[in-house]
Amino acid sequence: MNKKSVHNTTTKVIIVEDNQTIREGLTLLLESSPGLECPASYESCEDMLAEVETVLPDLILMDIGLPGMSGIEGIRKVRGVQPEVLVLMLTVYEDNEKIFEALCAGACGYLVKNTKPARLIEAIGEAVGGGSPMTASIARKVVGFFSSSGKLEAVDDVKITDREREILSELSKGNSYSQVGDALFISVDTVRYHIRNIYRKMQVHSQSEAVAKAMRRGWI
Amino acid sequence: MNKKSVHNTTTKVIIVEDNQTIREGLTLLLESSPGLECPASYESCEDMLAEVETVLPDLILMDIGLPGMSGIEGIRKVRGVQPEVLVLMLTVYEDNEKIFEALCAGACGYLVKNTKPARLIEAIGEAVGGGSPMTASIARKVVGFFSSSGKLEAVDDVKITDREREILSELSKGNSYSQVGDALFISVDTVRYHIRNIYRKMQVHSQSEAVAKAMRRGWI
DNA sequence: ACCAATACGACACATCCATGCGGTTGATTG
DNA sequence: CAATCAACCGCATGGATGTGTCGTATTGGT
Predict the structure, then answer these.
(1) Fewer CB within 10 Å: N-end or C-end of chain B?
(2) Angle formed by the axes of helices B207-216 and B162-172, to 10°?
(3) How near does any CA of chain A get to the CA of B41, in Å?
């Protein structure tokens, strides 16, 4: 929580958007909305980053396709110096890659540029209130990421036992067979036994391959 | 797209909820909403699964804490037989684990039980329309998952070279030193050389540990 | 011109791994 | 009760790995 927001009730929103028309339109919209103010707007992340520590915004409306530093990189940079600031993407990109890059970088919401003014104001309120505004289709993509990762790497019908998972986990920590045996209170030969079964089930022939595959499948 | 939904404009919503009062209240709400119908409701996943293939619902309102099979397991089961069906969670649980399990299992949205009737009806429309309705705080948790995974594992200042990354990648595919050498057109001993450097930089002493660590750091 | 970093190559050797074979025990399930 | 399965244990062996030490070549930077 920064000092400014304690002392006033308005939410400071700044804009990073290279298109001047859009930028000015947004500024007007924000300024005409009760509870919001727009103390500054920028046409590049570099400009924004130069001032962000004096302006201390509560929320940043961020474009992606910008001259110089991309909006994605801008998120990382600004959250490096102002970890509490909220970043709301407002862009034309609706492809998975951009969406996930932005969210991984720390954006708290993602809107597309044809969003109606009223919805945008509402979304800013949502973000400030602890939510993550997204368009319907983007929300579905985000949620869909989990159900696809739930399937993970189309597991070809193999199941691994708890014990085998433990063994793999120990191997991934760099333990040798005998160390794994000590850790799990079994003999080296039993470790071998389990690893044989793991290799057979996963159709691999080395520790590294087994560990890598297991990690991609979310087993360890 | 199932046959039924082609021939009528109403959305079939069924309910799985063990509390009779809530179940009946929801049924009334759905039936009184234009465009929605509620042909059936169940107090357990088992009951629902027995009829779902004849009822052919468009959407399922699903609780989690149920007698017998949990709602989470119910999602997996029902999507096994009806992959197109939408599942909207309606539960009291708001902890990360339940949320992510449900989404991984294939739920398309997640609401909590104190949701207002009007919002619930709206959410059903959103889900049918290709969205993923969630409460604000749950949306933030979902998005927060990405930003935390984006950080990966705090890297203790080490960098590996492109060549070293290639080597690790080959090892993770299960290739032996000589196979890696063949793949990258270098000798086995050079592979050894690179692996020595990798081990030194990462402070590990086995392939598995190196591969696991590299994957957690997003290097491969 | 020199230094540091990177990539490449070679030899040696103790240890570890992958895989073959053979077993026993207990719990679950048809 | 027989069958299955997970977990447990042992032994043998060729080949792979981890680590030591020694080189050369190229490249980018001060």
Answers:
(1) N
(2) 110
(3) 25
* pLDDT tens digits along A96-109: 889 988 998 999 99
Number of Cβ within 10 Å of residue B204's Cβ equals 18
Are the Cβ atoms of B212 and A147 closer than 8 angstroms? no
Give chain A positions within 8 Å (CB) of B209.
Answer: 172-174
Confidence band of A20 (pLDDT split at 50, 70, 90): very high
Q: What is the pTM of this model?
A: 0.71
Write down which residues 128-187 in A have CB closer than 7 A to strand C. Answer: 176-178
ipTM entry = 0.69
Residue A112: its pLDDT value, please?
Answer: 94
pLDDT score for A134: 96
Q: Which domains are seen in chain A, by residue range?
A: 3-149 (3.40.50.2300), 162-216 (1.10.10.10)
Within 7 Å of a protein beta carbon, the nucleotides of strand C are 6-12, 16-23
Burial of residue B178 (number of CB atoms within 10 Å: 0-12, 13-18, 19+): exposed
φ/ψ region of B7 (left if φ > 0, alpha if ψ in -120 to 50, else beta) reads alpha
| A147–B103 C-beta distance less than 8 A | yes
What is the β-pairing status of strands A41-42 and A36-37?
unpaired
**Cα separation, A144 vs A157, whole angstroms:** 22
Q: In terms of pLDDT, which residue wins out, A159 or A90?
A: A90
> Helix axis angle, B45-55 relative to B71-81, nearest 10°?
20
